[in-house]
Each structure stands twice: as C-alpha cells, then as structure tokens.
C-alpha cells in the first residue's frame, strides 16, 4: 500500500503551504490522480484521514479527481479514452500503437485554508 507514503508526503506539502500562508487549519484539499498512477482512491481516502491526525489538516475534506485513461492512437490519429487502464488497445480500430497521454502521478490541485 504505497498510498500511505503518498499521503504522508502530500500532508507535508499541504502543511508547508498552509503555514507559509498563515493558516490556522486546512479546510479542504483537492488531489488529482493520474489514470496510470496505480493509486486506489478508496485507499487514498483512508490513508489521508490517518496521516491528517494531529496536523493542521485534521478533519479537512478531501476531494479526489480521477483522470481518465487517455491515449493518442497512431493509426486513427486521434485521442481516445480507454475503458480500463489495463486494456491498451484503441477502442476505435483495436490498434495497440497507443501513446499514453494521461498522467501517471498524483498532484495537489488546491488547498483551502482558514486564517482565523
């Protein structure tokens, strides 16, 4: 379960940014998960709640955006969305000549803080 490590690092960043902006607490965090990141959103939620305990982010709301599995098909010459990140064939022409466009990481998109 690498989600715990990802959450620990994310909370470090959130707390640094919150402190730099004079926050008393973190109200919400928006995270984007890449389609090919191998991050389970349910595990991420669970781990996020755990690592927030005793921090400025304790009790904050976590918003998760899951990116679609998007690829460029060489044969069709267009962007296609895959139904599963495990199936690497174009849904239009069944070609396997796909270039992955979707991200394989996790990003903190936004942090909402309370300064009072």
UniProtKB/TrEMBL annotation:
Zn(2+) binds at residues 73, 76, 90, 93. The keyword Iron-sulfur does not apply. Transmembrane segments: none annotated. Gene3D superfamilies: 3.30.2320.80. One of its GO terms (biological process) is protein maturation. Pfam families: HypA (PF01155). Keywords: Metal-binding, Nickel, Zinc. Signal peptide: none annotated. GO terms for molecular function: metallochaperone activity; nickel cation binding; zinc ion binding. Ni(2+) binds at residue 2. InterPro entries: Hydgase_Ni_incorp_HypA/HybF_CS, HypA/HybF. Involved in the maturation of [NiFe] hydrogenases. Required for nickel insertion into the metal center of the hydrogenase. Belongs to the HypA/HybF family. This is Hydrogenase maturation factor HypA. The lineage of its organism: Bacteria, Pseudomonadati, Pseudomonadota, Gammaproteobacteria, Enterobacterales.
């Amino acid at each position: 379960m690498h989600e715990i490590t990802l959450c620990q690092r994310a909370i470090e960043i959130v707390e640094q940014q919150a402190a730099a902006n004079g926050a008393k607490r973190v109200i919400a965090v928006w995270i984007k998960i890449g389609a090919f990141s191998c991050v389970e959103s349910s595990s991420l939620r669970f781990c996020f709640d755990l690592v927030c305990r005793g921090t400025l982010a304790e009790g904050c709301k976590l918003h998760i955006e899951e990116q679609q599995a998007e690829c460029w098909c060489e044969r069709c010459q267009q962007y296609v969305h895959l139904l599963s990140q495990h199936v690497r064939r174009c849904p239009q022409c069944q070609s396997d000549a796909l270039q992955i466009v979707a991200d394989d990481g996790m990003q903190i998109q936004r942090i909402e803080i309370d300064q009072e």
